[in-house]
């Protein structure tokens, strides 16, 4: 496995998987979390693992092969969760996990997620949707680009970066990650380029979120989740971005007010010192959990 799953012991604590229980892993990736859940739910408990990325599903199949038919893997969007559950007659559901965003395997792929490798500006988790990062960068209006950089990237120089992109694309189409990174470097004042994070990080994050409709999918799945769970079923959601975390937090609060669930995490759970040391991806991870009434 290339990807190191985050907050594993905390996910196990809040999902509390027991023998013969069934779980849905909405973002199964390479199966890191699914594996530890399957280890706790023998002999007959199952995991329905979903991922939008067929490559992730292929690798996950190999990683979870030892669990045989206890691991059911589906290449689809968790936005379609209700249909996927019905199609697979997957019930009862004792817990649901969402570990949002991108995996390390995708960062290392050839799809342009990383500004450290020169690749085509694609950034799709699947290869069937029409929107790519290249289309956003070359065809969207300056104002639209600025908006996603601000909202999804929290880029303080969104205006300058969007302006530079639209200037530069007049002379040459922007097709590669290195071309884009050079433009970002020209747009961001030099004294802000030696920060803790690379100056292209926020723009790349914003593009990835926009290309894959990440917030839309989360908004689509949240209202369906509680009805899919059994009473006393548990929900754990790991987010890596403040907009995602706010969506999750507000959703859980509303559901608690309606007396549908009880929130188990007063404030979000973050990685402990040991994990922070071993896995830099865990730095921005926030886990929220709840139990259905
Ligand atoms: C952080 S990784 C999950 C890693 C996984 N928990 C593990 O232990 O290997 C997030 C995964 O969510 C997938 N993903 C992103 N958007 C999705 C969507 N709308 N539906 C299903 N999977 C999605 C990505 O392809 C990626 O594999």
From TrEMBL:
The gene is rsmH. Pfam families: Methyltransf_5. It is found in: Cytoplasm. Its EC number is 2.1.1.199. Belongs to the methyltransferase superfamily. RsmH family. Keywords: Cytoplasm, Methyltransferase, rRNA processing, S-adenosyl-L-methionine, Transferase. This is Ribosomal RNA small subunit methyltransferase H. GO terms for cellular component: cytoplasm. Its main location: cytoplasm. It catalyses: cytidine(1402) in 16S rRNA + S-adenosyl-L-methionine = N(4)-methylcytidine(1402) in 16S rRNA + S-adenosyl-L-homocysteine + H(+). One of its GO terms (biological process) is rRNA base methylation. SUPFAM superfamilies: Putative methyltransferase TM0872, insert domain (SSF81799), S-adenosyl-L-methionine-dependent methyltransferases (SSF53335). It comes from the Bacteria. The lineage of its organism: Bacteria, Candidatus Staskawicziibacteriota. One of its GO terms (molecular function) is rRNA (cytosine-N4-)-methyltransferase activity. InterPro entries: RsmH (IPR002903), SAM-dep_MeTrfase_MraW_recog (IPR023397), SAM-dependent_MTases_sf (IPR029063). Specifically methylates the N4 position of cytidine in position 1402 (C1402) of 16S rRNA. Coiled coil: none annotated. S-adenosyl-L-methionine binds at residues 31-33, 51, 78, 99, 106.
């Amino acid at each position: 496995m290339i990807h190191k799953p985050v907050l594993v012991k905390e996910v196990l604590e809040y999902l509390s998987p027991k023998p013969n229980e069934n779980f849905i892993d909405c973002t199964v990736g390479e199966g890191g979390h699914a594996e530890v859940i399957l280890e706790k739910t023998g002999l007959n408990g199952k995991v329905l693992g979903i991922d939008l990325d067929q490559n992730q599903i292929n690798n996950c199949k190999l990683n979870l092969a030892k669990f045989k038919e206890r691991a059911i893997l589906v290449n689809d969007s968790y936005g379609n969760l209700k249909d996927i559950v019905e199609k697979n007659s997957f019930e009862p559901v004792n817990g649901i996990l969402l570990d949002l965003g991108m995996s390390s395997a995708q960062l290392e792929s050839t799809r342009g997620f990383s500004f450290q490798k020169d690749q085509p500006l694609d950034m799709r988790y699947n290869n069937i949707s029409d929107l790519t990062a290249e289309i956003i960068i070359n065809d969207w209006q300056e104002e639209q680009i600025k908006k996603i950089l601000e909202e999804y990237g929290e880029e303080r120089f969104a205006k300058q970066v969007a302006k530079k992109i639209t200037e530069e694309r007049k002379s040459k189409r922007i097709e590669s990650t290195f071309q884009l990174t050079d433009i970002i470097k020209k747009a961001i004042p030099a004294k802000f380029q030696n920060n803790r994070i690379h100056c292209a990080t926020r723009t790349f994050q914003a593009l990835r979120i926009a290309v894959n409709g990440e917030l839309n999918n989360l908004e689509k799945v949240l209202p369906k989740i509680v009805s899919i769970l059994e009473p006393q079923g548990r929900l754990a959601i790991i987010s890596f971005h403040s907009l995602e975390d706010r969506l999750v937090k507000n959703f859980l609060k509303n559901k608690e007010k309606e007396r549908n669930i009880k929130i188990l995490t007063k404030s979000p759970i973050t990685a402990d010192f040991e994990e922070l040391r071993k896995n830099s991806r865990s730095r921005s991870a926030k886990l929220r959990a709840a139990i259905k009434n």
